[in-house]
Amino acid sequence: MNRLILVSNRLPFALERAGTDEWIVTLSAGGLVSALAPVLRGRGGTWIGWPGVAGDIPNAPFAEATRDAGYEVVPVALSEAERDEFYYGYSNEVIWPLFHDLQNFCHFEPTFWETYKAVNERYAEAIARHCQPGDFIWAHDYHLMYVAQALRERGVHAALTFFLHIPFPPFDIFAKLPQQQRLLRALLQFDLLGFQTRRDLRNFLQCVRRVLPDAEVLPSSGLQRIRSSGRTIRAGSFPIGIDFESFEKGAASEEVARRARELRAAFPGCQLMLGVDRLDYSKGIPERLRAFRVALERHQELRGRVVLIQAVVPSRVEIPRYHEFKGRIDRLVGDTNGRFSTDTWLPVHYRFRSLDRDDLLAHYRACEIALVTPLKDGMNLVAKEYCACCVEKNDGVLILSQFAGAAEQLKPAVLVNPYDVEQVADAIFKVFRMSDAERRARMKRMRRIVHHEDVFWWVDSFLKAGSQLAARSAQTASRRRVKQR
User: What's 377's DSSP letter?
Assistant: First the structure.
């Protein structure tokens, strides 16, 4: 059992200023924390990341709040300029749009890359201070793609592994990145690379072949192997899951059942459709609203009998493009409601706020249809959460974008092209008329998949794939110590 060093952009604990000298430390919610925290406690280990505030990090409140975590927590400090150029800049104005096939949204500012490297080196310094020979280092997501390069430069010989939570683009799009070769070489400094889907893995291997002529993709079954600079790197697809039993149990609770009944009672005689998304242009919210408007235009049977509840969670509002994007959503909601509403029926109920957990579960349980139609998504766990919460009759129906990673697993969903608003409109009408028997058959199959391939299965799959690497790393470190004696 190797110690686990987990590295992510954000810590599982968030730090917020409550006053001049007062701070609040809160535990972050989410499947990643619930899945990995027990593993860290069991193995012993460290979680390294940014606590969410720019500037110096106060030790006293942070150390006090994280004392009972069961593992060491190491905060990485970022200045306001580093936060702006590393997080808002390179991570979210270069990598995020490019990897979601939205290259027109990219801002290729050269200083962003330099700050991205510098911050990754800061993370590497924190890792190097806290790791030991034989440790299993697992870095997460697009913010930290350069960290293995920085660790190799510092002589760290532990097993270095990485998981990308967002999609990896095809070569024709990746080639637009000014630092394409440097970024790929940095990724190949890891020992194991994990991707959400087989498509992401294929895209990555295609880019390696096209961009790095000195790297060789070796024929192999199971994990793919890449030979580069005298090293063998392994890569595979590991679709992330959710804590199925937690969502199912929560949805079955009396409090959630009561809220779900109240939600249904507010819309008598209507089927409820649900959209839940962060404010992000990759989520396809305007296209979804346009598709619903087309459905109402084409199919009068839907009018007065279907309601779309669209919840948008505020995100990255500091970036001007996101503020403009919200305005576009507001106008589409207003147009649809202005054209089709009656004295007793409003077609779109729009909420620009976060939902607390019980409220979210109640919406999942109450709504007969879920519209999960991102333009591109690494996985999209909303689709899986919705399936887990269909506990009453198993008769919820999922309309799912074919460009969401979840589509590779959830084939019983009604798959659509989110760019084709007419196809999505027809899918809305199709599921509105779908029989209860067909709904139950589709949902039963999806719930079985989501239950089996949950977040704990994902963690186990990745750690098993990396276990041999960690064993070899420990043996190498042991031989190195013997030689030094």
Answer: B
User: Which residues are the active-site residues?
Assistant: 165, 377
355 to 40, 109, 278, 321, 447: CA distances (angstroms): 29, 35, 11, 24, 23
Distance of CA 73 to the CA centre of its chain: 22
- Strand residues in 219-304 grouped as ranges (E): 224-228, 231-237, 271-278
* Ramachandran sector of residue 284 (left: φ over 0; alpha: ψ -120 to 50; beta: rest): left
Q: pLDDT per residue over 142-186, tens digit each?
A: 999 999 999 999 999 889 999 999 999 999 999 999 999 999 999
Contacts of 173 (CB under 8 A, 6+ apart): 98, 101, 103
316: left (phi over 0), alpha (psi -120 to 50) or beta: left
Q: Which domains does the chain have, with CATH numbers?
A: 4-240+456-484 (3.40.50.2000), 244-452 (3.40.50.2000)
The H-or-E segment that residue 41 falls in is: helix 31-43
How far apart, in whole angstroms, are the C-alpha atoms of residue 122 and residue 130?
13
The tokens for 468 are: 């041999």
266 contact partners, CB below 8 Å, separation of at least 6: none
Question: How far is 231 from 164, CA to CA, in rounded Å?
Answer: 21
Q: Sign of dihedral through CA atoms 294, 297, 298, 300?
A: positive
Structure token pair of residue 406: 């979840």
DSSP 221: S
Which ranges in 266-319 belong to alpha helices (H)?
285-298
Tens of pLDDT along 406-443? Answer: 999 999 999 999 999 999 999 999 999 999 999 999 99
116 vs 113: CA distance, rounded Å: 5
Q: State the amino acid at position 348 in one-letter form.
A: V
- In degrees and rounded to multiples of 5, residue 48 shows phi and psi of -115, 130
398 near 410, Cβ under 8 Å? yes
How far apart (Å, rounded) are the C-alpha atoms in residues 458 and 455?
5
Phi, psi torsion values for 214, nearest 5 degrees: -85, -5
- pLDDT at position 410 is 98
Task: Compute the distance between CA of residue 431 and CA of residue 439 in angstroms, rounded to an integer.
Answer: 8
Burial of 276 (0-12, 13-18, 19+ CB in 10 A): buried
Measure the CA–CA gap between 306 and 310, rounded to whole angstroms: 13
Residue 48's contacts (CB-CB under 8 Å, 6 or more residues apart) are 5, 6, 7, 8, 11, 74, 76, 123, 126, 127, 130
Q: What is the distance between the alpha carbons of residues 387 and 83, in angstroms, rounded to a whole number?
A: 36
Alpha-carbon radius of gyration of the chain: 23
Alpha helices in 299-368 (DSSP H): 320-340, 357-366
What does the DSSP 8-state code read for residue 107?
-
pTM: 0.93
**Residue type at position 379:** M
